[in-house]
Give the backbone structure.
Amino acid sequence: MTPPQAARPLTSANARRRLAAPTVAMLPRIADSLSFLYLDIVRIHQDDTGVCAEVTSEQRGTETVYIPTAALSCVLLGPGTSITARALTTFARNGTTVITAGSGGVRCYSAAVPESLTTLWLERQTRAWANDTHRLAIAQAMYDMRFGIGTAANGTSLDRLRGMEGQRVRAHYQLLARQYKIGRFRRSYDPSCWDSQDPVNLALSSANTCLYGIVHAAITALGCSPALGFVHNGNQQAFVYDIADLYKAELTIPLAFSLHASPNPEGEARRSFRHGLRLFQLLPRIVTDIQQLLDPDHTYEAPDPAEQMVDLWDPVSGSVPAGLNHGNQP
């Protein structure tokens, strides 16, 4: 007679399979994760030990590298990547978000979000977005992050903040125009007359698109909604535009002006942005900035994975445990 599952002998194959099958308590806290991993031109599959990536080259042939699935928050799959259903299932069971990205992670085409991903940040974003007072406070905080503490003092209207933003961005353009000796510059974006734009505008639009992809990936990995913006509104990318604006003056605008004499500003902007950007530093930075905006009092603590179960909403306490018969409660 076949022994029950619990009494089966622990062969090496069974041991490997058990190690590759995580329980809820084994899932890592987000603070302990290795965060983001970018892969391209590899084949990802699942074997008896875990998820591995096969890298093939003429010099070394085929090499196998095992991926630490339980320690990753997000995997970005670049061009030339193939992945099996079993490997995707393992990522999902370990709470890893899988994003299909462009070369270097500068696009975000689609995302597979695991069921175990906490909704804590999405709930905070939604509550703040739905409350005009909180939404204004976060919009002001975004202007502070861009232009310095105190720029958006309490009571400053958004109309006034938009005017201040326009003045500072225009001054930044003028400074860079003088630095690169290109004369007067005016920002324009006209998709219908794309080829007639000057090299700086072409490079800036191209670099911004790359930045939007990275920001979108970070927002998705955190579990927030790209559509619920605080400054921008009415678009599925509204929150992406909000967060991307925090970094344009530092990343994309100087890059665009440096390509003012390029014969191919779009292509060079994409390549320069991809090669010059330290992907593994920007993505965690974006996540940290979003968390600071949505949790300015720093009250967030990573939940215990063993406690990340579905709760029931309660208007008084916020939530009550699920999985209980509340008819038996006093």
The beta strands are 36-39, 43-46, 51-57, 61-66, 74-77, 82-83, 97-101, 108-112, 311-314, 318-321. Residues 144 and 151 are 5 Å apart (CA to CA). The chain has two domains: 28-112, 120-294. The domain at 120-294 is CATH 1.20.120.920 (Four Helix Bundle (Hemerythrin (Met), subunit A)).
